[in-house]
Amino acid sequence: MHKRFVLRQKVNSRLRASLVITFEGATFAEVEQAFRDSIDDYLAFCAQRGEPPDRPYSGKIALRVSPETHRRRRALRRRV
C-alpha cells in the first residue's frame, strides 16, 4: 500500500462562498509543489482580470469609543 500525503485548505472567496481545496501527492514535496502551483495560478488569474488578489483579514478592528464607555467596559471585564 502506498502512502499518500494530503493537504486541505479552506478558502473563503469574495463571493462569500467557502470551499475546500485538496492537494495530494506521493511525497510531501509533491503536495507542496501542487500548493505553490495553485497559488501561482491564482495570482496569474487575478492579474489577467486586473484585480488584486484577496488578502486575509487580521480580525482586529480599531474602534473608538468615549472614555466613559471604555471605563465601563474595563470595569465589566474586571468582574469576570
A few lines on this structure:
Helix content is 44%, strand content 20%.
Mean pLDDT: 78
In total, how many beta strands?
2
Radius of gyration: 21 Å
Number of helices, where a helix is a run of at least 4 consecutive DSSP H or I residues = 2
* Percent range of helical residues: 40-55%
Gross morphology is: elongated
Order of SSEs? EEHH
Distance between the termini: 54 Å
Strand order, sheet with most strands: 1-2
The number of domains is 1
Low-confidence stretches: none
Strand content: 15-25%
Overview of the molecule:
- The protein is α+β, with helices and mostly antiparallel strands and 80 residues long.
- It has one domain.
- It has 2 helices and 2 strands; from the N terminus they run ββαα.
- The protein has a two-stranded antiparallel ribbon.
- The chain starts with a strand and ends with a helix.
- The model has no long low-confidence stretch (mean pLDDT 78).
